[in-house]
Design a protein that fits this description.
Layout: H1 11-20, H2 27-37, E1 42-45, H3 52-66, E2 76-81, H4 85-98, E3 106-109, H5 116-124, E4 126-131, H6 133-141, E5 152-155, H7 158-163, H8 167-174, E6 182-187, H9 192-201, E7 206-209, E8 220-226, H10 232-240, E9 248-251, H11 255-267, E10 272-275, H12 281-293, E11 298-301, E12 316-319, H13 326-333, E13 343-349, H14 354-364, E14 370-372, H15 395-398, H16 421-424
Parallel strand pairs: 1-6, 1-7, 2-4, 2-5, 3-4, 5-6, 8-13, 8-14, 9-11, 9-12, 10-11, 12-13
Helix pairs in contact: 2-3, 3-4, 6-8, 13-14
């Protein structure tokens, strides 16, 4: 397939593509569009950044143009579900630009913003509704949204939606949809649970795949640095001293960690902003705008930003923490080396993360090049920083209140060997068990 005109798309779409400077379809577009134009359900497997949005938006817009109708009040002719607010906004913008030569009503529904404008848009009726599952369920429960006349249903980045815990919300939404509809299902990976969901929702789907499952992005130079946990921030600052790291996304495992890393970079003279689920929508948009405009060099993010943030010219991705889900590594490093450019992915790996590294290598079938950046044993850099509570003090200042001069210390709560700092302090490299992680540390599963 040499150009878009050979796909049989409507004239308004070809005109919009020409104005946007798009002439040739990407592999996922060339394979998916003909199937969707025939009305078949579709499963598409492709990495982020391969043009998936246009692969479903163009054939859907073609069918809307061929069959113009008044949008249903309270609902939409097209429903696209997305895992994050940022991706939802980008999908909606793609529909607007690709449908710029059509009379098209498009709206986005997601959490973190007031309900009013979303309710008014739904009440008027929409051609295209792009939503995160959580907020859309809110509108369904309140009786504002009515999806009984939806003709096209798209699930985008399905693997991330399942990672964020949206499977119940998806099933809740599907129950409100008409039986007769076209279903399109896009994901970067296809583990067993996603294949089962596809089997439940789709009818005799066509399947297209343009990259091997869990293949890391081409043109990305990957490297792993073995470091001590307590030295990660300082090593990150040393890395950012390189002027080549002009636009860097840094991934942390927790929201609190993202804030701390961004604050540390600012203190060290590196302009940085943090983005995660605890930030308001306006804060997230300001951080992204600053990063896109080059006002900050580093964007520190949790995995909410691993997909759906389309920022040109990202030179480096740094995994400050290795992800617990190995597929997330593929999506993270896919933020660089986009549109034919080259990029670099650097991962900081401490002793507790060696198993995570092995899982990533097993998934990607790659042996990642490594470099040992650990300090020499016995050097000051190799020792964890001394906390204020551990600062040495005269013995008499450390005696508990119930232990007077010459009196043996009582063995009870708060005293004796059972509560000594050496025994209460966690071992170096040990991490808090999964079930005991603080609620504020984990990305909220209700991003929508």
């Amino acid at each position: 397939m040499q150009d878009f005109s050979g796909l049989g798309l409507a004239a308004p779409l070809l005109l919009a593509l020409s104005k946007l400077g798009y002439t040739k379809p990407t592999p996922i577009q060339a394979q998916a569009i003909p199937h969707v134009l025939t009305g078949r359900d579709l499963v598409g497997i492709a990495q982020t950044g391969t043009g998936k949005t246009a692969a479903f938006a163009l054939p859907i817009l073609h069918q809307l143009a061929a069959n113009p109708q008044q949008p249903p009040r309270g609902g939409a002719r097209v429903l696209v579900l997305s895992p994050t607010r940022e991706l939802a906004s980008q999908i909606a913008e793609s529909f607007r630009s690709l449908g710029s030569e059509m009379q098209l009503s498009v709206a986005v529904v997601f959490g973190g913003v007031p309900h009013g404008a979303q309710i008014r848009a739904l009440q008027r009726g929409l051609d295209v509704l792009v939503a995160t599952p959580g907020r859309l369920v809110d509108h369904l429960d309140s009786g504002v949204a009515h999806l009984g006349k939806t003709e096209f249903f798209v699930l985008d980045e399905v693997d991330q939606m399942l990672d964020l815990g949206f499977v119940k919300a998806i099933h809740r939404i599907v129950k409100t949809l008409p039986q007769r509809r076209q279903n399109l299902f896009f994901s970067a990976t296809m583990p067993t649970e996603i294949a089962k969901l596809a089997a439940d929702l789709l009818k005799n789907p066509a399947q297209v795949s343009v990259t091997p499952v869990a293949k890391t992005a081409d043109r990305v130079e990957q490297q792993v640095l073995f470091v001590e946990t307590h030295r990660k921030r300082d090593i990150l600052v040393d890395l950012l001293a390189d002027a080549k790291m002009a636009r860097t996304i840094i991934f942390t495992r927790t929201k609190r960690g993202a804030d701390k890393v961004a604050q540390h970079l600012e203190v060290c003279g590196v302009s940085a902003a943090a983005i995660h689920g605890n930030k308001s929508q306006s804060q997230r948009e300001r951080s992204l705008a600053s990063f896109r405009a080059g006002r900050v060099r580093a964007l520190v993010a949790t995995d909410i930003a691993a997909r759906g943030i389309d920022v040109d010219g990202v030179t480096h991705v740094v995994n400050f923490d290795l992800p617990e889900v190995p597929e997330a590594y593929v999506h993270r490093i896919g933020r660089t080396a986009r549109a034919g450019a080259e990029g670099v992915a650097i991962s900081l790996c401490d002793g507790a993360e060696r198993d995570l590294l092995r899982n990533i290598e097993r998934l990607t079938r790659l042996r990642l090049p490594t470099e040992d950046r650990r300090a020499a044993p016995g050097s000051p850099e190799s020792r964890p920083p001394v906390r204020a509570a551990q600062t040495a003090r005269p013995l008499e200042q450390r005696r508990p209140p119930n232990a007077g001069p010459g009196r043996p210390q009582e063995r009870g709560r708060g005293a004796g060997p059972a509560s000594s700092p050496a025994q209460s302090r966690p071992r170096f490299g040990a991490s808090r068990p999964q079930g005991e992680r603080r609620a504020g540390d984990r990305e909220a599963s209700h991003q929508g």
